[in-house]
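A sample follows:
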Amino acid sequence: MAYENILFERSGGIARVTLNRPDKLNSFNVAMHEELADALKQVAEDDSVRVLLLTGAGKGFCAGQDLGDRQVSGGEGPPDLGESVEKYYAPLVRRIRSLKLPVVCGVNGVAAGAGANLALACDLVLATSSAKFIEPFCKLGLLPDTGGSYFLPRLVGTARAMGLAMLGDVLTAEQAQAWGLIWKAIPDEDFGSEVDKLLEQLAVAPTRGLAETKRLIYASGDHTLDEHLDAERDAMREMGRTADYAEGVDAFMNKRKPEFRGC
């Protein structure tokens, strides 16, 4: 597939996907959904990829849905927004969460609506200090989709989730970090180098172990303590048989830097 709405590159174990509609603040249309789905499918099938970066071109990360797109504009009757969620936004979140590698989101500017919640679907979120997170659905008579009503209370608690969702106030990157909504806010001038440093660290990490870590963390809310202890046991048994575990132990015992292969 030829990409017109995203940029996609792979090198050195790192895949980079950049939402590329800067004149529209990288808001989603159907074409961008389809291109992003194709790129994520390629990442999932490429064993050489050890970490994925999702970011935006220009001055913003993603302003959510392009309200001028034919799928959600008037036409002859009201749009079926549920169809848009079912066909595009929900599968997008599921694809990101199911990837067996770390997914880093680099929020380089405004992240609003579905764009904000797309960021929250990722495993590690870094944002420029000037970035802003906004849940504007309440101002359109809607509710936070793209997993927003799921992620928000789990990340910041019910009270703050209600405030963000019902008032649509702007949340700065520093506030987002302080509230635990994102991993880190970074000065704008240092953002690119800090993101690259994190990607390089994850690209040489024990990928299978990280994949199991994210799987268990995301599953923990659905488990009792006993169920989760059993899940940890089973995962540790499996990870103990990997080449990366053997490499990690050998490197530790011999006081050298490990060379993980992600398997």
Observations:
- The CA atoms of residues 27 and 63 lie 5 Å apart.
- DSSP finds ten helices and ten strands in the chain.
- The radius of gyration is 19 Å.
